[in-house]
UniProtKB/TrEMBL annotation:
InterPro entries: CENP-V-like, CENP-V/GFA, Mss4-like_sf
Name of the protein in question: CENP-V/GFA domain-containing protein
Organism per entry: Rhodanobacter soli
TM helices/strands, residue ranges: none
Record-stated family: Belongs to the Gfa family.
Native organism taxonomy: Bacteria, Pseudomonadati, Pseudomonadota, Gammaproteobacteria, Lysobacterales
Length: 149
């Protein structure tokens, strides 16, 4: 039996629908505490991230030009934003040919049942410390799917 056979499935995406998210986890939503990054970029987007190292994340792009990527700070992570409406849906980084990611909980639909957001300060970590931390916390093998050209 798959560890995600009884998973909680969350859907979400950007405001205009160009980016869609599917996040599944076996973790109880109430046990998941969104991490509100205190960097200036995430604060301006009111981002708070959830992840599960045993979870799954798929980001579906309606077209190849729907996605905008943005790097800042240490340039270690890449923020995924809608190129049309500007909503920040997730953050990813690549390490050893794997794409790890965390979902902006505020881009998910409906009540999630997550705990209250807590502050996180990745900007206080060196780039290698960020990679080590994120490799343990974030969703591995994030799937990016483009539907149209």
């Amino acid at each position: 039996m798959s560890p995600l056979s009884n998973a909680f499935a969350f859907r979400g995406g950007c405001h205009c629908g160009q980016l869609r998210l599917a996040f599944s986890t076996a973790l109880e939503p109430a046990s998941m505490v969104p991490r509100a990054c205190d960097c200036s970029f995430c604060r301006k987007h009111a981002a708070a991230y959830v992840s599960d190292p045993a979870g799954r994340l798929s980001v579906t792009l309606q077209s190849s030009d729907a996605l905008r990527r943005y790097r800042q700070g240490s340039n270690t992570a890449e923020f995924l934003l809608c190129g049309r409406c500007g909503v920040l849906v997730a953050v990813v980084f690549e390490h050893h040919a794997r794409i790890y990611g965390a979902v902006n909980a505020r881009s998910l639909e409906g009540p999630t049942g997550f705990g209250s957001a807590v502050p996180a300060s990745p900007q206080l970590l060196a780039a290698d410390e960020k990679v080590a931390r994120w490799s343990q916390l974030w969703i591995p093998d994030v799937e990016l799917v483009t539907l149209g050209a």
